[in-house]
Every structure is written in C-alpha cells, then in structure tokens.
Amino acid sequence: MSKNKAILIIDDEFIILESLRIQISGILPDSILLEAASSGDESIQLIDDFYYSGHELALVISDYHLDDAKGTDILKHAISKFPEVQKVILTGQADTEQINDFKTHYGLDGLFTKPWDFVDIKNIILPILN
Questions:
Q1: Which of 84, 87, 101 lies closest to 43, judged by CA?
Q2: Separation in Å, CA 80 to CA 37, 70, 102, 115
Q3: Which CA distances in Å does 121 have to 64, 73, 75, 96?
Q4: What is the 3-state secondary structure (H, E, C) of the chain?
Q5: Which residue ranges form the domains of the chain, and what is each CATH number?
Q6: For residue 57, how many other CB atoms are within 10 A of its CB?
Q7: How far apart are CA 20 and CA 31, in angstroms?
Q8: What is the reported pTM?
Q9: Residue 13 CA from chain centroid, whole number
Q10: CA-CA distance, 130 to 127, in Å (whole number)?
Q11: Which of 65, 73, 94, 113 is deepest in the core (most CB within 10 A)?
Q12: How far apart are CA 55 and CA 5, in angstroms?
C-alpha cells in the first residue's frame, strides 16, 4: 500500500500563508494533502499527525522567522520523522549564517525570499507529484 503524500506550508502571516495555499493547491492533484500552519507549535503537531496517520510528508515550506519558532527547528523535527522530506525556507530577512549551517548539516531544497517567484516553488513541487 502506498502512503498518501502531504505538503505542509508554514507562515505566521495570514496573507502569506493564504497566498501560498492558493498557488500550491492550484497545481496539486486531489491525492496530495495540503495543510497549512500559522505557528511552530501547530506545525509540529501536524508533522506528528502525518507520521502517526501514515501520510508521507513530502515537502515542508516554512517561513524562517515565526513568532514561536525558527523554520529550521521545524524542519529538523520533520526530518526526524520523515528523513526524505523536501525542505524549503521562505524568508524576508533571515540569519544567513544559521540557514547556511542548517543547509550544511541537513540539506535544503530551496531558499526563497519574500516575495517569491512561484515558478521556483513549482519546480520543487512538480517532481513530488510523480
């Protein structure tokens, strides 16, 4: 039995989160679950829910600066449950030293500044659809 794939997007700014959700949902088939979280705590809970429900978390797109967490900490939690997860950081103003350190140790599939070019995000998502 193949697992259902899921994508998680995380940002504490509603307009950013909703824009991403609308753009991404427009290219996803119904077979891929798209979830959105507006905090670190909510995203950790969703990652755990995916793990225990048997979903395959294929991609996490996280803002770097959340009110209650750093995006890299959320990505580390995702990696602990889903070692093959694709990891993307969105940022308006990031601590590049911390992001580069994360990239060196864990890998990073994308680093996009706000506002992002959806073509770049789409190029990460399309291979997941296969």
A1: 87
A2: 19, 16, 14, 29
A3: 16, 21, 17, 20
A4: CCCCEEEEEECCCHHHHHHHHHHHHCCCCCCCEEEEECCHHHHHHHHHHHHHHCCEEEEEEEECECCCCEHHHHHHHHHHHCCCCEEEEEECCCCHHHHHHHHHHHCCCEEEECCCCHHHHHHHHHHHHC
A5: 5-129 (3.40.50.2300)
A6: 24
A7: 18
A8: 0.93
A9: 15
A10: 6
A11: 94
A12: 6
Cα–Cα distance, 126 to 130 (Å, whole number): 8
Q: Which two tokens stand for residue 28?
A: 């996803």
pLDDT one-digit tens code per residue, 71-128: 999 999 999 999 999 999 998 875 678 888 999 999 999 998 888 999 999 999 998 8
Q: Quick count: other Cβ atoms within 10 Å of Cβ 89?
A: 24
pLDDT in tens, 41-50: 999 999 999 9
Residue written as token pair 């291979």: 127
**14-17 own/partner pairs: CB under 8 Å, 24+ apart:** 14/38, 16/63, 16/90, 16/114
